[in-house]
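Subgroup meeting minutes
Present: P.N., E.W., G.H.
Scribe: E.W.

1. P.N. recapped why we're keeping a running log of single-chain structure predictions: easier to compare across weeks, and new members can see raw inputs and outputs side by side.
2. G.H. added today's entry (427 aa).
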Amino acid sequence: MTGTVAARTTWFTEARFGLFVHWGLYSLAARHEWVKLREHLDDEHYDRYFRHFRGDRFDPARWARDARRAGMRYAVLTSKHHEGFCLWDSAHTDYKVTNTPAGRDVLAEFVAAFRAEGLRVGFYYSLIDWHHPDYPWDGMHPQWERGGDNHEGDLGSYVDYLHAQVRELVTTHRPDVLWFDFSFPGPASGLDNGKGRDHWRSADLVAMVRQLAPETLINDRLDLPGSADFLTPEERSPHDDLAERGLPWETCRTLNGSWGYAPGFQQWLDAGQVIRVLVDSVAKNGNLLLNVGPTARGEFEPRARTLLAEVGDWLEVHAEAIHGAGPAAFPTPEDCRLTQRGDRLYLHLFAWPSGQVVLPGLAGHLDYAAFLHDGAEVEFTEIRDWRPDVPHRVAPGPEGSVVLRLPTLRPEPEVPVIELVLASPGR
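Output recorded in log:
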């Protein structure tokens, strides 16, 4: 990782937890943000959502408070999704929120509210556009799926528009993150009319952002190797640390199986699952960007707000094991995750063991152990030159390990955490 990238991403790798918000015209359809493509809806049908987008319950300050309460440190909003609808008062299109009954610059209000709450802000921006008249009817376009006339469009004109809008977003708000979505180059996607770096003029786009806002982070979906600040595995965490590729990473996850508001999707995670995904990400040196899809009127669903609050309750007393923490330099016991921050290891217990936990290789390195939520001491034994007191006894752990002695009763936190204070060198 170059020094420049490392400097840009310092806050990002310390933050660890962010909010993703998908809000647009698809929220009125309430059947997934890809509804226009999935149901092959034409512009005439889809315009009903534009005419009736009022967002009268939109309260960005409340969104920001919910995010802060959950322990999140940054937020990314869909400035424009694939449908082409813009959530800011763009000078380059009439297909924008200020021309709907809402009549508000949602993005500007979002930026002000979240920054007032001390959170960093980012903008999702779709490279694809199902509304712009110059965007070709490729294999990712609703009209292509419907069949009929293969509209060739004017890709050069559309990409001029794309670059102009990104310039507008960057110069107006200087976002902390630009989250582009997505490239599908022909050979990789299996589509003859796929689109990648040359179609988007990705090199020029990145150069423009770097010139206008050098500190803005750019994700990895422009199909331009060497240009990204972080990687974006979606809806699943990697098996191991992706940092070996030289970049930080962030997994983005839905709460109920849909990015946009879709009450019919009921595959809800619970707070415990979210906490485990977050912990697993940090233990592998990554972030979690957790999505909420507001209702058509602009509110977070009660179930989503409750879940965020529950995660926040856990994170309030376990923050030091997450924010500013990363992978540990010691082996991880089964059904656990280890994170580390300075001279502190944090053992996250995904399952409650019977009586003890064995930490390989930690003998001689541990000074003190206690539960993080209440500070109660956890006694431990070091296994060094162990000899049985009677022949039928076996060692509680391998040579060089530390054995933590746990209470029979599981503590209340959804994921109990034991803080392990490492001994000073030479102690």
